[in-house]
Amino acid sequence: MLKRVIITSALLYWVLVPVASAQEVYVDAKLSKTAAEINQEVLLTITITNAHGNVQAPRLPSFKDLDVYYTGRASQVTFVNNMSSNMVEFTYVVIPRSAGRFPLDNIEVLVGNARYMAPQLVLDVKAGQKQMVKVPPVTPTAPPIQQPKMASAQEATPNFQPDDDNIFVKAWVDKNSVYVNEQIVLTYSLYTRYDTRYEGFSEEPEMSGFWIEEFPMEREVQRETVRVNNKRYVKADIRKIALFPTAAAEYTIQPGNIKASIRQEPQNSSIFDEFFNDSFFSGSGFFSRREDRLLKPPPIRIEVKPLPEEGKPADFQGAVGRFQMVATCDKQQIDQNEPITVVVTIEGQGNIETLKQPTIPEAQNFKVYEANSSSQLFKTGNVIGGRKVFEIVFIPIVPGRMTIPKLTFSFFDPSQGRYFTQMTQDFQIDVKASDKPLELPQMLSQQEMFKKEISMEGKDIRYIEERLPNEIMQSWEKRIYFGLAATDVILTLLVLFGLWREYVRRLFDKDVGLKRRKMARSQAEAKTRRLKPLMYSKSLNDTMDFFEEVDRILTQYLSDKFNLPALATTRDDIQRELENTLGRDDPLFSSIVEVYQVCEEARFGKGRLEHGLKKDVLKILKQTIDRVERKHH
Amino acid sequence: MKLRIGIVSVWIAMAFLLMGRSLWALSPNDIQRFEKANEAYRSGHFQEAMEDYRDLSKKYPQTGIFCYNLGNSYFRLGQIGMSIWAYERGLLSDPRNHDIRSNLKYVRSLLEYRIDDNRNWYLRVSVWFLERLTTREVKMLLAFCYFLLMSSWGLALYFWRDAPWRWKRKTLAVLLGLALLLFIAKYWETRVFRDAIVITQQAEIRYGPSESDQVAFRLGEGLNVSVVDQREDWSRIVLVNGEGGWVKNDQIVQVMS
Fold first, then answer.
1. 0.95 cut: is pTM over it?
2. Which residues in chain B are closer than 8 Å to A481, comparing Cβ atoms?
């Protein structure tokens, strides 16, 4: 089955496609009349039939004494007996400027990449009544909503002399004298006799002092043929802006610079088929030589009048236009301290965004809060309008039958030149007594809108400080600082001392003999100091103990100093070491020997010795230590 | 022995702490002078107020409000440069004082000239941070970190002889290192680049320290410069936009002078 479908499709393709493609491109041209008078309008129509692909507007050569204006394009596709055919028609207006016989030849049509020539035509022009030709607009723009009357007189002729009068932009306003906040429409119209492509604003307009709303432009910009200073132009409105002046003054709007790209070849015809289309990607647009033009319309002066003081309502907050106000209330019965919302809608024509909330009068027994506001803008034709909705929350603080006070809204209608005031209706509500405490709805309590903003009114230096700083704080800061510094010094010394001690300890741990030598003196002196009580005692036992202790101190010191074993050291060992150190002839040597003898006598004599000997022995002991220390250094 | 060392240390530290009162207290005469200056300012005698505030600020350089009030008096007398100098000086001892900063900002906004700050962002951030600390605060921080490390070390030496060099003491050592860096940076900021203010209506900055050297550019009153070198009558300055030159000493006044 599938196989049969594929075969049938292939056959159909091979049969039908050649038939369709065999249809040849046919270019025809005709004039609405072959004979005309000077300045009389003649319609030239160029028809291209069976064109497949991109069809460019025919390029007309320049004809002497003939003005040619492009006026539009139409296309048509027909299906007859499964055969399609299409036709594209380009129309031009030809206006002869002198009498004679004018051949219209060399009209070239580009279809895809192929070039075709239109048949030659001849126009006979007779001298006749010279009259101005009135050309109706090709595609007049119908106003979508009720439009205010535009000051067409202002746009009819440009009031400035452009550098190249074949292309210029005119920026014009519908009104030159308005009230504050009254709408003005600023329109940019491009007039051209070239094949032109609009490329946007290279410099935006300078419109300080105005609230600005831009009108959206249609994708396909409307264009029309107009006559200015006896010349025909294609005119297109390229930008439209609504302006609302914010203060009364004389303003000058600098309209900025508009960029346009034109095809350079001089020709009387204007090819606008590419206007606002992306002709950059079309064949001729890409390859043809184009030139950029910066078009600068002249500045516009606008007089903004202040709003009249006469009849200005007290609650007027600057709304200008035509508005209507409607209000609704969401409840009629509520509890005390419960919120009720009044929704106020203001709609109409004017600057909706700047509308302020209607004035809320003093409402006794109510707490009133401004909640949300939202706006919707409509931009249609030449009118800015829309609606703005305000939500106002009322919280009754006492029970009973209450009336929400009327809200008023005033505006100035510039078309009538006077003020109007609108008022909401009374809303009657029943408020039931309730113990519920007053609490703001969450949506309100989260909003910052209830807080007034602080605005600076002037600037100066802050005042001098007349109070002295806290003395206690300052003095304590210093105390802490100096205390900390002193503590740091002490700690440093302690740490250094600790480190030295640690070093010595480690050294002594490695060499016990060194430790004994180094410690011998201090230990001996410490023990000697402890002898004082025994020295002054007169008891026999104490005397015996004194000499025994002296013997022990001396032996301990000398054995430590000479690194002899502490327990197994005999007196002979000591004498031998002393002989080596002091020499046998040294009087101290004999004194030490004598000290030992005295000590022995004391031990054996049970302390029966002369009391004065103690001093001598102690003296010899100290001398011995000093001498040995000196010798060892 | 250990106990004795501890007791002696505590006594010495206490002695320093108690000594503090005599280091700051304002004499009754000075208090009276301060009130007199306030009264003079209130009654619009700004010259008189300025003189009293100036003397007090010289005598008590660590009290920012004297400089603040002095700055206000200078401003009222129309001496913008000196006013900025006084505020800058006040910030040295009270760098987070909102009133001083606010007035300084306002007075600077009135200056005719401005200098674009072309320094790197990290330099700007560092200076911003350092300007918010007094030299004493930085020293205190350093002393405190040192105290922590030394206490910990001392305890280890005397009481826990075999305590290892653990992460707590390492962290303290790192903190001390950071505090030391901060101290060096502060020293650099205040002593190496010494802030100064232009006090004449227009100061000529020359390429060399003499009148014969060519003028490089001119500075308006109140602008901040940094003094990096000094000769007898001339100071070498640099600006935050990288430009520099020599200016006569009588056209600027150093903030720390």
1. no
2. 136, 139-140, 143
